[in-house]
Amino acid sequence: MITESESRQIINYVLKELSKKVYPLMTDNRIDLTKGIGVHRVKVRPSTELEVATNTLTVMHDHHTVTFSGAAVDINTINGLNEDELVLLEGTTGKTITLKHGVDNINLKSGADFSLTVNECIVLFNNGSKIIDI
Predict the structure, then answer these.
(1) pLDDT value for 79
(2) How many CB atoms sit inside 10 A of residue 79's CB?
(3) Residue 67 pairs with which residues in a beta bridge?
(4) Kind and range of the H or E run holding 10
(5) 19 contacts 25 by C-beta, under 8 angstroms
(6) For a disulfide at 59, which of 24, 80, 90, 131, Cβ 3.0-4.6 Å?
(7) For residue 84, which of 12, 36, 20, 28 has the smallest C-alpha distance?
(8) Which sign does the torsion angle of CA 43, 49, 51, 52 carry?
């Protein structure tokens, strides 16, 4: 599991990458994720466990360690992530989580599935039509 400090480093990296590609980064680390509609501050909470149910992950907070029964699981759908929200997902020891590109609402920039294992993480963003990785 990654530490809270590592989580903050990841979010700071994401903020910088967003500011380079699409959104301006203000001096107090705020970015306008809604393109002029409002300003959001990204805060990282300690990770909470989130269990996958039937190939669907329902996000409850902004930082989760993904768990499930068995050794591997495919995630086809991510629910609970509102438009312009981010979530940081972490892998779990001894388990492989595969985010399935293009199956339902997940659209990864690589164009391929993504396997999330222990000590790995991914930041996902709801752009209003799909869940994308940053």
Answers:
(1) 93
(2) 11
(3) 51
(4) helix 4-21
(5) yes
(6) 80
(7) 36
(8) positive
**Tens-digit pLDDT profile for residues 7-37:** 667 776 776 665 555 544 444 555 445 444 3
The residue type at 128: G
Q: Residue 38 has what pLDDT?
A: 39
| Residue whose tokens read 């963003």 | 125
Tokens of 80: 């609970």
What is the distance between the alpha carbons of residues 57 and 67, in angstroms, rounded to a whole number?
10
DSSP for residue 57: E
Tokens of 43: 């805060």
CA distances (Å), origin 82, targets 3, 50, 51, 90: 25, 17, 19, 19
Structure confidence at residue 32 (pLDDT): 47
pLDDT averaged over every residue in the chain: 77
Q: What is the pTM of this model?
A: 0.69
